Amino acid sequence: AQKITQTQPGMFVQEKEAVTLDCTYDTSDQSYGLFWYKQPSSGEMIFLIYQGSYDEQNATEGRYSLNFQKARKSANLVISASQLGDSAMYFCAMSGYNFNKFYFGSGTKLNVKP
Amino acid sequence: DSGVTQTPKHLITATGQRVTLRCSPRSGDLSVYWYQQSLDQGLQFLIHYYNGEERAKGNILERFSAQQFPDLHSELNLSSLELGDSALYFCASSVGGTWNYEQYFGPGTRLTVT
């Protein structure tokens, strides 16, 4: 069975510091994708970053980077220089090839303190 | 504003009824994805259409159906509604048909079944 695990229900980080949100996954597929989404309190979903299982380089998008460790089956999100606007729920997700399977984790609520 | 529109924003209906949720993708995007977010089930992928054709199915109930029209807008039909169908329903769009394209989410339709 495929599964996404986010073990941190809630986290605090000081403004301007970096923070790592954990995500581990379980799959027997050789080809898969890993995603992170942000959901602010206003409710909209925002796509942050994507990593393919065959990508050798860790994905980066601005202040977001995905720390992909294939052997450990982890796909942690690193947010550098946290901002107050980063306070939100963050969801890790995984897809199988062609989206025939797609699973979300339970989310991590991040609070950025001034 | 992601450029994805969803109507209606809120919907309140009774058990046993049928509703239709509508999604218009960003201009130029060929893919539409539907997701459900509920307190019980968390976030779930429902279905993906690309250029009018169904690409992948997730945890979509048999009571639910969807289609994508020639103008690329999509509708999600929910029938024989149950209390447990109360949820936030998101659609997202992307330019490509595979899972490595960035998705843009609409604001969601909040469905309440009473």
Descriptive overview:
The complex is a heterodimer of chains A (114) and B (114). Chain A contains no helices and twelve strands. The model of chain A has no long low-confidence stretch (mean pLDDT 93). Chain A is globular, with a radius of gyration of 14 Å. Chain A has 114 residues and is an all-beta fold. The relative contact order of chain A is 0.33. In chain A, β5 (32-39) and β6 form a beta hairpin. Chain B is built from no helices and eleven strands. Chain B has strands spanning 5-7, 10-13, 19-24, 31-38, 42-50, 53-57, 64-68, 74-78, 87-94, 104-105, 109-113. In chain B, the strands form two sheets. In chain B, strands 2, 4, 5, 6, 9, 10 and 11 form a seven-stranded mixed beta sheet that branches. A four-stranded antiparallel beta sheet of chain B has the order 1-3-8-7, with no helix packed on it. In chain B, 39% of the residues are buried. The model of chain B has no long low-confidence stretch (mean pLDDT 94). Chain A binds chain B through residues 33, 43-47, 50, 52, 91, 93, 95, 97-104, 106-107, and chain B through 2, 33, 35, 42-45, 48, 55-58, 88, 90, 92, 98-100, 102-105, 107-108.
List keywords for this structure.
heterodimer, A: 114 residues, mainly beta, four-stranded antiparallel beta sheet, 54% strand, globular, B: 114 residues, seven-stranded mixed beta sheet, 0% helix, 53% strand
Short description:
The complex is a heterodimer of chains A (114) and B (114). By secondary structure, chain A is mainly β.
Can you give the helix content of chain B as a percent range? under 10%
List the uncertain runs of chain B.
none
Give the terminus-to-terminus CA distance of chain B. 31 Å
Report the major sheet of chain B.
7 strands, mixed
Tally of DSSP β-strands of chain A:
12
Order of helices and strands of chain A: EEEEEEEEEEEE
Multimeric state:
heterodimer
Number of helices of chain A: 0
Overall number of strands of chain B: 11
State the distance separating the first and last CA atoms of chain A.
Answer: 41 Å
